[in-house]
Design goal:
Number of strands of chain A: 12
Distance between the termini of chain A: 17 Å
Order of helices and strands of chain A: EHEHEHEHHHHEEEHEHHHEHHEHHEE
CATH architecture of one domain in chain A: 3-Layer(aba) Sandwich
Helix content of chain A: 25-40%
Helix content of chain B: 10-25%
Shape of chain A: globular
Shape of chain B: extended
Distance between the termini of chain B: 70 Å
CATH class of one domain in chain A: Alpha Beta
Structural class of chain B: mainly beta
Oligomer: heterodimer
Strand content of chain B: 25-35%
Order of helices and strands of chain B: HEEEEEEEEHEE
Radius of gyration of chain A: 19 Å
Number of helices of chain B: 2
CATH topology of one domain in chain A: Peroxisomal Thiolase, Chain A, domain 1
Radius of gyration of chain B: 21 Å
Strand order of the largest sheet of chain B: 8-7-6-9-10
Largest sheet of chain B: 5 strands, antiparallel
Structural class of chain A: alpha/beta
Strand order of the largest sheet of chain A: 3-2-4-7-1-8-12-11-9-10
């Protein structure tokens, strides 16, 4: 006997470079308390906690889940921390989903916070994820590693930097409607092209900001949904997959899953769509909150998820296919990770945004008539991938 | 809290940690090879895969890698980039990096590309396009680190 998994409440802070008015744990507490208060729940109503915490070297307190226990009302409850790098926020949702679906708990709170700017050495922290013998002597971090992939992808499919810049323009514009978003504004393709080159082909505007803030989501079974939420979103499909640490194995002809085209996302997507009964994503999914720390990342995932053919995502961008109004699918109406990247909770924010769209609570960037949405998350050098589907109907209704 | 208080804003700390990463037999053999200007890859006779960086175990055949092969000193670029700013590494930018699949090996290994004019980034990236052949050069006195060698364009 499996249980339905409903999203009962979501909460996110404003995301910006720094929140000097509070500490890291106070930021997590604000999210936990805010998420419960929104649906008049109290700590006793939460059966278990899944804590969303990625590399702690950013904010400098090792394994800060321990530090946060009191602040998130965890004392006396089962609590587990999940860490899959940038995919952490996707993995926590899937862990909580499993805990409720299995019948183990009636309600689970997912919560976390991020404070990347507490160190000026964030890029050094990200270099520390590489192999100390063969890779760390190179200038490899997330920006350069994804830039390497992007150059081969763009040459393979004939995509120009201007094609990619159009996505940045759309998402910064989308973010104008999202009070939680970090970077936002009406910019032009020329502005993107004129921003300083960091690692070819990525210019400053192709790269996510270092965001601080907190986020939380409470999920529960159908019984809990009846008690606390009149219009829940249901999690109806989850898929996750991981791949080799060796970039050099993933970009060669013998690769099992070609990293250049993000073939691995097809695996996570297929698992999620099968559970969610999705056979024709472009007609069945209205909002895609794909995890795009870099301009190139979101549409490559969309291609592998079956919304369009491999290599065509950026051509369709130019035709307006991913616009919030009048597009085929609204891609990152929130502005996406490209505009807001609090690493430890960035994937959770994708899930919150996707759930809010189904619940009709997205606010200024609410898309009309959303029946299904999806959220992805990406961690490591695209080594941990998750895809989760949110629906207005529970599982059995398919 | 009283509004006429201006709280102190930060506590500053600098953390230095030291590590001695154990190389193990496989990586240790690779580093010894570099000192003799050899790039050593491991091979699994069951799957036929030749791995660089070398592996102890073939995850495809579920067997131990059972041989060493000297990789060719030429190969083909699979991915490349020129880093212009934003990274405070051991070398000042601009720097070119590529993942290269050396002849006789199935996987690609990363290293710097030297001897390329990086003043025009677009032109440099054209010259570093995937499929371009490069060759290996060694530093005058190899130390047993991966940076003992680098790539230059084959022509």
């Amino acid at each position: 006997m499996t249980e339905q998994v409903a999203v009962l409440s979501t909460w996110q802070s404003e995301f910006k470079l720094r929140h000097p008015s509070m500490t890291y744990v106070e930021q997590a507490q604000e999210a936990a308390a805010g998420c419960m208060a929104k649906v008049s729940m109290c700590p006793d109503d939460i059966d278990a906690i899944v804590y969303s915490l990625a590399p702690t070297a950013f904010m400098g307190v090792a394994d800060a889940d321990r530090w946060a226990i009191d602040h998130i009302f965890g004392a006396g409850k089962p609590m587990l921390r999940v860490h899959t790098g940038g995919a952490t926020g996707g993995s926590v949702v899937q862990a909580a989903h499993a805990l409720v679906r299995s019948g183990m708990y009636r309600t689970v709170m997912i919560v976390g916070a991020e404070r990347i700017s507490e160190t000026p050495d964030a890029q050094k922290v990200l270099n520390q994820i590489f192999d100390p013998f063969y890779e760390k002597d190179m200038p490899l971090q997330t920006i350069t590693a994804v830039a390497l992939m992007a150059n081969t992808y763009m040459r393979r499919h004939g995509i120009t930097q201007e094609d990619v810049a159009r996505l940045v323009v759309r998402q910064r514009r989308n973010a104008l409607l999202n009070p939680h978003a970090h970077l936002k504004g009406n910019i032009t393709v020329d502005d993107v092209m004129a921003s300083p080159m960091i690692a070819y082909p990525f210019k400053l505007f192709d790269i996510c900001p270092r965001s601080s803030g907190g986020a939380a989501m409470i999920v529960g079974n159908m019984d809990a949904a009846r008690q606390w939420q009149t219009r829940p979103a249901f999690i109806t499909g989850v898929g996750a997959v991981s791949d080799s640490n060796w970039i050099g194995d993933r970009i060669v002809p013998s690769a099992e899953y070609d990293f250049i085209d993000w073939k691995l996302m097809r695996v996570a997507g297929r698992a999620a769509f099968e559970r969610a009964g999705i056979t024709d994503p472009i007609h069945q999914v209205q909002v895609a909150e794909v995890y795009d720390a870099f301009s190139i990342q979101g549409l490559t995932q969309l291609e592998q998820l079956g919304f369009c053919a491999s290599g065509t995502g950026f051509l369709l961008e130019g035709e307006g296919a991913w616009e919030m109004d009048g597009g085929q699918v609204a891609v990152c109406p929130s502005g996406g990770t490209l505009c807001t990247n609090p690493i430890a909770v960035a994937g959770l924010v994708r899930a919150i945004e996707a759930a809010n769209q189904v619940m009709g609570t997205a606010g200024g960037h609410q898309v009309k008539n959303v029946r299904r949405s999806l959220a992805t998350a990406v961690g490591g050098i695209a080594q941990f991938l998750t895809c989760s589907v949110f629906s207005h109907e529970p599982y059995e209704a398919h | 809290m009283s509004k006429n208080l201006t709280p102190q804003s930060v506590i500053t700390e600098e953390v230095t940690l030291r590590y001695d990463y154990a190389l193990g037999e496989v990586a240790g053999t690779f580093m010894d090879g570099l000192k003799q200007r050899k790039i050593l890859a491991t091979r699994c006779s069951k799957s036929g895969m030749v791995y660089l960086p070398p592996r102890a175990f073939c995850e495809r055949s579920f067997e131990k890698c059972d041989g060493w092969i000297e990789a060719g000193h030429e190969g083909v670029i699979e991915a490349s980039t020129v880093v212009l700013r934003g990274f405070e590494g051991s070398r000042p930018p601009p720097i070119a990096v590529a993942f290269v699949r050396l002849d006789g090996v199935h996987s690609a290994i990363a290293n710097y590309v030297e001897g390329l004019d990086l003043s025009d980034t677009e032109r440099a990236m054209d010259r570093l396009a995937p499929g371009t052949r490069v060759r290996v050069q060694f530093v005058p006195e190899p130390q047993g680190r991966v940076t003992d060698f680098y790539f230059v364009l084959a022509q």
